[in-house]
User: Fold this.
Amino acid sequence: MYNFLKQLITEAGDIALAHKARLADVQVTRKSEKDLVTEADVAVENFLIEHIQQQYPDHAIVGEESGSHAGADYRWIIDPIDGTTSFVHDLPFFSISIALEKSGEPFLGAVYAPVLGELFMAEKGKGATLNGNPIRVSDRSVLSDCVMTTGLACLRQNLERNNLPLMAALAPKLRGLRILGSAAMDLCYVACGRTDASWELNLNIHDIAAGMLIATEAGGTVTDFSGQPEGLPKQILATNGIVFSEMSNILSTIHNQPPENSP
Assistant:
C-alpha cells in the first residue's frame, strides 16, 4: 500500500502541474463567495478515486469534491488540491493530501507539493519522511525563537469567532508568523522542523488527515486547543511538543472569551 500511495500521489501531482501550466484557461467556480474549486481539483480527485477503486474496490473513500464512497474497514481521505486559492493565484503553496485509515485509525499518509517537488510520507509506527529522508520536529522551546503558521478558513466562512484575536495575541511573541494557505503543508512543515507550531480554526478532515499522521510520526503533537482530540478538526494545534503547553494556554484562553460584539 505504501508504494501504491507514493506512485498514486506523484502521478496526481503531474495532473495538477499540467493544469497549472495552462492556468489562464483553467475553469474556476465558487463553492461560496470566497471558496474556490477548479477543474484541476475535480480532475485530480477523479484520477485518485478511479485508481483506488481499481486497486482496492472494497475500500471506502472520502473526497473533498465528491463526498463519500462506500466501503468497509479501510477508508481513503482525499484532498485533491489543498490550497486552491494559491493554485489559482499561481503560488507554489498547494498540495495533494491522501490519508488511509484502517478501522478508523490513520496508518498511512502522504502530502505532495508538486511545484516544490516535496513528498512527505508517514506510516504508523515507522516515522515520517521528506523525499525518502527521515524528518523530525524542531527542538525550539522559546516562543520568541519560533516561526509558526496559521490560516484563515474561518474568515472565508465569515465566522464571528475567528482567528484574528489569536493572531494578534501570538504574533508579537514569535520570531515569525506565516500564512501559506495549505493546512496539509502547515502540518508537514511542523513535522520537518521548518516551523515549530501551526494552528487553525474550522478545517475539515480531508485538510488534516494525512498531515496529522506525518506530524505525529515525526514526534509532534496534534490536538485541539485544549490538548484533546475531540475538537479536531474545528480546532487544530500542531506543535513540536515542547511549546504545546504555552500555545495551548494562550489559544484556549483567548478563544474561549466571548466575541467583542457579544452582549
Summary: The CA atoms of residues 153 and 202 lie 6 Å apart. Residues 143-255 form a domain with the D-Maltodextrin-Binding Protein; domain 2 fold (CATH 3.40.190.80). The first helix runs from residue 2 to 20. The mean pLDDT is 92.
